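Hi P.,

Sorry for the delay on this. The queue was packed all week, but I finally got your sequence through. Input first:
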Amino acid sequence: MRCLTLAEELKKNGHSVYFICRLHDGHLCNLVLHKGFTVFKLNQLNHPVMNNDISNQSKHASWLGVSQKQDLQETTTILKSSQIKFDWIIIDHYAVDSTWEKEIRNHIPKIMVIDDLADREHDCDILLDQNYYLNATTRYTNLIPSTCILLLGPEYALLRDEFIDLRKIPRIQKSQNAILVSYGGSDPTNETLKAINAIKMINPTNLTIHIVTGPSNPNIDIIKKHCDENNFIFHFNIDYMAKLMYEVDFAICAGGSITWERYCLGTPAILTAIAYNQKELCENVIQLGIDHYLGISELVTEQTIKDVLMSFLEEIDRSHLSEKAKKIVDGNGKSKVMNTIATIK
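Then the structure:
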């Protein structure tokens, strides 16, 4: 999704953009096509192999579905057959490292990497890490070339236009609290249902609760059934997330890219890390004094959520949290990334 956001900005500025994606379960190739981009597709194997040739045995090695060597071969075959002279390749994948990147330079001269793990070496001209870390300036020491330009922190967050546009409209404090519950497209540990049950424990008659799920969520029917009360509103696979996020007072959600979307609009949250790569981000973000972090999903219970939710509801005026968040993310991230790309000839 963050690549799609950047691609639309590049296209708006006159660049031709193509995607290369593997057909994993839950792939978004149809969405990319719908947005007007050509997608070169890499086939999914019937029996995926463990990608065990990453130089430092990445925790996300298996996400590639094949070895780096095979993925590189398939990718370069597509590049050659396309007969397009590409200037840049932008890589956003936790299982790709310098081994893959050095070889791809033989076909595409300039490389930008989007990362937030800092757990492997990269061969790139630009590295974008839009997340907040206390040790941001040192995380990539010895992992990138000395000439690489680092774009670090939420000021470079890649946000869709709808978030940037809504940010300009002042928020109005309402008498009744509205809450957004969202744990991404799949929510494999069913944090959504935990949150629903936690809210029901506090007799939420004076609340409006918006429950958002995506098409990859395996528990959609159960969640929808639990949204059977008047003040629970079920939303499925929506395209108006920004509007919803703007209208609520706070969110109960996962970490990840949603953090910077929320901050752009000034929406604080109660956070759970639902993936390995979210844990460090959540632990650092709470230092900003805007969100409350509950912990990793397997340690979070309905009671945990309920206790923190009660304290959030007791805070009558959260405008200071909203203003603090909006200062951290100004909405100009993709323009700054675009300008950096343009400086490298």
